[in-house]
Amino acid sequence: MEADFQYEPVRDAAGCQLAVTVLADRAHIRAEMREDAAAAGFRIRECCSLEEYAQGPLGALGDLVLVDCAEASADALALLSRLDMRGGKAGAQLVVSTTMGALDSVFGCFSMSAPQILVDPGRAERIIAIGRVLARVPNLRLREMGEEDRLMLLRLTEQVGQIAERLEQLSPGQREGGGAFRFESPAPAWRGEGEDYEVARDGSDRPRLPEAAVLRKLIKARQLRVRFLDAQLFADPAWDILLDLAAARAERQQVCVTSLCIAAGVPATTALRWIGQMVDADLLVRVSDPHDRRRAYIALADRTADALARYFAAVGATELAVV
Questions:
Q1: Looking at the whole model, is its pTM more than 0.85?
Q2: CA-based diameter of the chain, in Å?
Q3: Is residue 33's pLDDT more than 90?
Q4: Same domain, 40 and 175
Q5: Residue 201 located in a structural domain
């Protein structure tokens, strides 16, 4: 007998079926998102283009909001900012797909609603994102599924993600930042640390980060290895991310999400996963642009910068950079 993995209608505590708002300018993407949300058990509240939604009457937002924003136009970004505010206040869950070129602008629009942000995703990635939303619905039940079925579904979800990642690695444009990956915008409590990019000084003998030239030399030395050895043998995205942000901090430079993905030295999918994990661990923070509230950067948390300063002092980073 073939297993039935379809969800029953998703309902809230009062027994009302949860609704979804689908917004996408690309018709085929809009149709896919509508179909997948309906299959997951959501009632379609609204399904239209971003422009139609922006110009229409202000109606209630769905419990789930699926948005596809391929171009970072002024009107689109204004709408995303509105959705972020409304979603954050209403407790709606947002899944926003965009392109690599628009990532920085789209990312900067969200500070209240903590959406899942997908970049150039395939349909599988969108389905997985909806699945993550379903996982947060209390007391959700699947039809005719025992514990073994649940484990099988979990493994299947993981395998879909792994297959998508392998396909991305085969894509010619992946190294330039293409591919499908998820990046969750910071939760409302995720704070920026202003414009102070130096390790805090409290009058003690705490070490400071090395000069930017020393850090850049260490980064260059790491990058040179791929000329002589298999790059996969030395892939360490977390360390490359920390090094790049440490050098930027020493230079008092701000780092955008796309730039950090490139600095990680791995496919964008892997880089974004590591950035997300490091944000969750409070190693990295979001820094809002004081001149443009819709733009945000990534920086080291103060405690991370302090830990790196102590590490570089312990290993003698200046001497290492000379070697």
A1: no
A2: 71
A3: yes
A4: yes
A5: no
